[in-house]
Amino acid sequence: MSCSFSKNEKGSASDTTAKEDMNITKQEVSEESFNKELTYPGSKISFMVSTKGDSLIIQPSGLSVSNETLYHDITGYTIVNAEIGDLNVDSYPEVFIYLTSDGSGSYGKLIGYSVNNGKSVSQVYLPEISENNEVNKGYMGHDEMAIVENTFCQRFPVYKEGDSNANPTGGTRQIQYKLVDGESGRIL
User: Fold this and answer.
1) Which end of the chain is more exposed for a tag (fewer CB within 10 A), N or C?
2) pTM of the model
C-alpha cells in the first residue's frame, strides 16, 4: 500500500484534494480563518472544523450522547487541512485536522478524534516523530499528512548532516499508521 498526497494552497476557496467518497459540504480557507464541514458518507455524523483567532473549534453533530464543542489552542500553528475517514473500520468516523508549525521548520501536528459507537468522541494520540528513534533520524519537519484508505500517512523529507533547512538531500520518509485501541484511548 502506498500513500498519495496532494499539495493544498493556503488561501484557496475550495478543497480540490478531497476524496470523492466524502461528502464535504463547505470549506473556506483564508489567512485569518479555516472553516470546513465534513460529513461521513452514509451517516448523519458530521464535524464542523473552524478557527477563531488562535483557537481550533470542532463541533460534532449527529452523535447520540454528546455533541459537545471541542476547543484547542493552536498558537504557533496553521491548519493545513481536515479529513474524515474510518481508520479502525468500525463503521464510525475519525476526524483528523492537520497543522504545521509557523516558521521555517513547518513541523506537522495532528489533532484527531474518533467516534465511539456513534455516541461520543475521544481524542486520538499520534506519537511525536522525535520520540521514535526508528524514524526520527534526519527529521526536520516539512510534514505532509493524509488519510489513505484506512491508513493515516505522514511523509517528510530526510535531511543528511550538513543539509540546510531549504535543501534536504536524504530523500523522503513515509510512515503509515493504523488506528488501534490503547489503554486510555485510540492510538496511531
Assistant:
1) N
2) 0.81
Q: How far apart are CA 184 and CA 182, in angstroms?
A: 6
φ, ψ for residue 28, nearest 5 deg = -135, 135
Burial annotation 115-139 (CB, 10 A radius, 16+ → b, else e): bbebebbeebebeebeeeeebeebb
* pLDDT, tens digit, 9 for 90 and up, residues 89-107: 999 999 999 999 998 878 9
Describe the strand order of the beta sheet including 23-29 as a list of residue ranges.
23-29, 34-39, 46-52, 55-61, 70-73
Phi-psi region of 166 (alpha: psi -120 to 50; beta: other; left: phi over 0): alpha
Where does residue 23 fall: left (phi above 0), alpha (psi -120 to 50 degrees), or beta otherwise? beta
Full DSSP string of 83-151: EEE-TT-SSS-EEEEEEEESSSS--EEEEEEEEETTTEEEEEE---GGG-TTT-TTB----EEEEETTE
